[in-house]
Every structure is written in C-alpha cells, then in structure tokens.
Design a protein that fits this description.
Layout lengths: L7 H19 L15 H11 L9 H17 L1 H6 L2 H12 L9 H25 L5 H4 L4 H13 L19 H9 L4 E6 L5 E5 L20 H11 L35 E2 L10
Length: 285
C-alpha cells in the first residue's frame, strides 16, 4: 500500500538530481568542468535521467546507478570481441543486457552507449589534466579498484583501435578528446595556491604560488597498495565463470580522488581569487 504522506514525484526528482551530481562530481577518476553536462546537452541529460529513474520507479537508488556503471564498464571489456568482430550495435546491446541483470536500472542500449562513451571521454580528460598539473602523476598509483580502473581499461582499448569512433558508432560522440579539446583543457589546467592573507580565514589565491593547494589526502601520499588493474581484470574474467554472475558485483566504495579538488580557472572560477570559510565572495568583510 502506498504511503499517502510520501511525495513520490518529489522523491524521483531528487534521485535524478542526486544521480546527475554523482556522475558529474562524485565518480573518482573522471573530470567534468563546472559548466559541462553529462552527454553534451541538458536535453540529452534529462532523457538519460528519466530512463534511469522513471516516474514509477520507487526502489532505485543513486548507488544503483554507480553499480550499473561499474558493471557496464566491466561488460565492455568482457564483450569487446563483439565490437571488433560484429560492430557497435550488437556490442552495446550485449553490454546493456549484461549490465542490467538483476538490476533496478533499465535503459536503452542507445543511452548506455551515450553514458559510457561520455564517461570514457571524462576519464581521458582526467588523465590529460592530471598529467599536465602533476609531472609525477602515475596512473597505476592513482587508480583505485572501482569505476576509474574499469574505465581506464576500456580507455586503453579504445586508444588502441584504428578508428576510435567504432566504439560509439557515432561520429558525433567521440570517446576521446579532440586536439582542440586537449588544448582548451590543458590551458585551464593550472595549480593555485595562497599568495596573500586577506583576513583570519580568507586567502587570495593565484597560480604560481610557492605553496600550491592539495587535498589533505596528499599528506599521506604513497605508492598504491592495491593492484586496481588486476582487480578489474579478475572481475572481467569471472564474468565467464558459471559460478560467478554480474549481479553479485557492486562498485567498491573508494575515497575521493586525492587530486581532483585542485581548482582551475574553468572548473572553479569562484576559487580563482579567494579562499574562505564558506562565505560567498560577494559578501562584504
């Protein structure tokens, strides 16, 4: 029996907003700038979110979307031979079918393709940006056993294709950054640090500061202790085992990336001049 005091429409809308935020901001090892949409337009994003959370859906949670993404990324590696031997249409049908097994998520293969292609491109942006900002950036040390490691595996397969567009089958949806996109991305990949204290809790930020801003997790920075790539490869192999099914796989809970909080001119325009205790810049001292 439905709860007469529960607003199901509002709950669905809030879940869509949470899923959008999780995809754009919470997935570790992917980069979306502040003004970026997931699929390239707000209209396409809304269509995707409506499929992820239909109006009648009441059991789907935001973590279901994260698990679905992880499963589909694994399925991309497991079904890669279909892409090579048959083509993208059959590939995305097989990937979607495998990813949604015993899941609350039911979306068309077209939207699965659009979502995963966008995430592979976001992974490519992340690697390019981190490499530009941090000369000592090491992919193997940075990866964790989760969506970022699964996406990195797919990205490397895509980069090895003679024609990267074969992955999506759509010339308007490239899974990697164009040369123009690379130049724009690297132009805004700038480190910031404090150069002048304005008040007890406010500092002016600028590029080229003697001490750059880093997440607190950098204080304990060290080599990776887990083989994230091996973890993902083992899961992909296990999908072929009769005793292991994809519905048993969920996205591992990982800590936020130690370096994704570094602001840039495009990603954090409000942080390019001052840092504060949370007060808006427009608020008078």
């Amino acid at each position: 029996m439905d709860d007469p005091f529960r607003d199901y429409n509002r709950n669905t809308l809030s879940l869509r907003l949470e899923a959008e935020d999780r995809i754009r901001s919470k997935l570790r090892g992917f980069y979306f700038a502040t003004g970026d949409t997931i699929l390239g337009s707000k209209h396409d994003d809304n269509a995707l979110l409506q499929e992820l959370y239909p109006d009648h859906a009441r059991d789907t949670t935001a973590s279901d979307v994260t698990d679905y993404i992880f499963r589909v990324l694994l399925a991309c590696s497991e079904k890669w031979h279909i892409l090579i031997d048959v083509g993208p249409l059959s590939f995305w049908k097989a990937v979607t079918t495998l990813g949604e097994m015993k899941s609350n998520i039911r979306i068309r293969p077209l939207n699965t393709r659009n979502l995963i292609t966008s995430l592979i491109k976001a992974r490519h942006r992340y690697v390019l940006r981190q490499t530009a900002i941090y000369p000592d950036f090491n992919i193997e040390d940075d990866m964790r056993p989760g969506n970022d490691a699964a996406a990195q595996t797919v990205l490397e397969r895509v980069l090895a294709l003679n024609d990267v567009i074969r992955f999506s089958g759509d010339v308007f949806r490239s899974p990697i950054c164009s040369e123009a996109e690379k130049r724009d991305l690297l132009k805004h990949a700038i480190k910031y640090g404090p150069v002048r204290q304005i008040s007890s809790k406010r500092f002016q930020l600028a590029p080229g500061a003697p001490q750059n801003l880093h997440p607190i997790s950098d204080l304990s920075r060290g080599p990776a202790t887990l083989n994230a790539r091996g973890f993902v490869e083992k899961l992909v192999v296990s999908l072929k085992s009769p005793t292991k099914s994809i519905e048993d796989i969920t996205a591992p809970k990982t800590i936020p990336s130690k370096r994704t909080s570094t602001p840039s001119r495009r990603h954090g325009s409000d942080l390019s001049h001052t840092a504060s205790n949370g007060k808006p810049r427009s608020e008078k001292q």
